[in-house]
Write a structure and sequence with these properties.
This protein is an alpha/beta fold. Helix content is 37%, strand content 23%.
């Protein structure tokens, strides 16, 4: 098995349908499997997958244990040499899976590979980043970000001065679509399940780099991502979870101003 495509779903039935359709319509030439782990959605997602996508291996999890927990459960069941952790709010473009797997095959020192992410209208997403500091958190999550929208610190964090047209080693990438060898997932200890939501992608990239692997942004492959940034839309439970995850991250790796 070349690639295991792992999708953790929670109440995103229609987006999940679109995501799965794009995978099977891509004409992927690799030997691949798709595993969907449903975190007790109860929105018809399970029934939809079972009826419309019989090739998908479906894991019905009886509770919502969070994204990292779901990723680890799906990865443990995977048979592929490479694991592709994919959000259900994505659309895979034809050829992307083959290009990512080929790049990793040619560059065994790469532990985590992320494609170029774009919005549905084709606009580039700032999906590769430098590591957070307290100041970038303030600029990203408070009204100060609007006051200092042209901040050099924020531009550096979002890597806005990079043209995003050639592969580049980066600190971390959004977890909407990340490929890694299963051996690397195992070596770094999997996803940190202490993060229920947010910062789990920052954390696993940090641990991969600490263990000597390269984390690479690869614009040779493109994936559409319906990125919503829910935690930035006013104060909510997701905002609280983002803050809790940030505290966990800085507590593990140090409070950088």
């Amino acid at each position: 098995m070349d690639v295991s495509i792992l999708i953790v779903n929670y109440k995103t039935r229609e987006l999940l349908r679109q995501c799965l359709s794009s995978i099977f319509a891509s004409g992927c030439s690799l030997e691949f499997e798709v595993i969907v782990l449903d975190n007790d959605s109860r929105d018809g997602s399970v029934e939809m997958v079972r009826e419309e996508f019989p090739r998908v291996s479906l894991i019905e999890h009886g509770r919502n244990g969070g994204l990292s927990h779901g990723n680890n459960l799906a990865a443990a069941a995977a048979r592929g040499k490479y694991l592709l952790f994919l959000n259900p709010d994505t659309v895979v473009r034809s050829g992307s899976l083959e290009k990512m797997a080929a790049y990793m095959q040619d560059h065994p020192e790469v532990g985590i590979l992320g494609p170029k992410l774009v919005y549905p209208d084709g606009e580039l997403q700032d999906s590769c980043r430098s590591f957070y500091s307290i100041r970038t958190i303030i600029l990203r999550r408070t009204f100060f970000g609007k006051l200092f929208s042209d901040s050099r610190l924020l531009r550096l964090h979002l890597m806005e001065d990079y043209k995003h047209d050639v592969p580049r080693e980066v600190d971390w990438m959004l977890g909407a679509c990340l490929m890694m060898p299963k051996s690397v997932w195992s070596a770094v200890g999997g996803w940190d399940e202490g993060y229920r939501l947010y910062f789990e992608d920052v954390d696993i990239c940090r641990r991969a780099e600490t263990d000597g692997y390269r984390v690479v942004y690869f614009p040779g492959a493109t994936v559409i991502h319906h990125h919503r940034r829910d935690s930035a839309r006013g104060f909510s439970l997701k905002t609280v979870r983002h803050i809790v995850s940030a505290i966990r991250f800085f507590s593990k790796y140090g409070w950088k101003w």
